Amino acid sequence: MMPATLRRQARTLWTLYTSRTPVYVILYLTSRCNFRCPMCFYLDEIADPEKEEMALPEMEKMSRSLGRLIQLSLTGGEPFLRTDIPEIVDIFARNNRVQYVTIPTNGSLTERIAATVERVTRDHPEISFRIALSLDGFPEDHDKIRGGNSFEKIEATLTVLEGIRSRVDNLVIDVNTCYSSLNDGNVDGLVDFVADRFNVDNHTVTYVRGNASDTTKDVTVSGYMRLVDDIRRRRAPRESRPFSSLLRAVMDYQRDIIQRTLATDRMQVPCVAGRKMLVVTEKAEVLPCEILNRSLGNLKECDHHVPTLLRTARSRKTVDWIRRTKCHCTFECALATSIIYHWPSYPRLFWRAFKEWWRSRRGLSAAAKAGQHEPACSPSAINPVEASA
Predict the structure, then answer these.
(1) SS3 content of the chain, % helix, strand, coil (to 5)
(2) Pairing mode, strands 100-105 and 71-75
(3) Interval 367-389: pLDDT, tens
């Protein structure tokens, strides 16, 4: 009988290439947030006094209309301001057999985050959970950007999450840095600082985007690439999953595409947003991605049935516009998904995967010669259709 891990990976590949419905859904749970970060692309929605959120019965209908999901990202606002995240995960586990769930957070609600993560990892051992905490600089710089004593709260949250991870094998803890003018040139050494101070699985970086203020977008590409190079230089923790080297190659290639997109202002790989990936807002508005402000429609108009909405003339027109105009951006999630569906990228991906595999083998050999013990493995945060959300 095929081992469980191999069965899971085979199911992932089968779903990727046979599913007729989106395999990646970014679901906004709320526009509420206890922070007001200047570089947030969702700041207008967060400031909107008329808060509206999809209820569980609406999510149930939406979920039932979809096929299997590989990736579900539960975002906001601050997603942990909702107290029903375990019930939301239950819905998508039951109806869609979702394989990966990511929840980005500012890390301020330590007790609630801990209780929620403890429950979902225990109730759904078949799902790989990724908690991505936003950390935009050294302690003083981060507090200036995010406000208050936010670094101290992140530190407390990381401590309790590391405790949970030691008891389960389906939790990944990441730190994500949003690169903007607020930390441009001030993050040299941050990757080493995080690696030395915290026991995280991955350090990722997102490039400021969307409706963030123009002043926060005034950044140097060279500064972004220095941060990327620092991340590449540090060897990420060893993974136990099959194909891990290939999956990390996707993420590495995605960063190069961002650099080329910024340099040329041209599409590098055809975008699959609106087809393989969807964004659903807290008001049930469906978007192809977080960048393109073109709604495909509202789920309330079709009793929350996603395939019906995607067949409308409005939706088809938007997807056709993306293809025809060669729409391009720096949105990491859309880029990573598009790479997976771009066959011409595969030779480069396989070469990068080989180098990643060789590098990890050399690291293991060096550790063995030195008589060191390898740290326990955690499932990777990186999968075929996930970037840092």
Answers:
(1) 50, 10, 40
(2) parallel
(3) 444 444 333 333 333 343 444 34
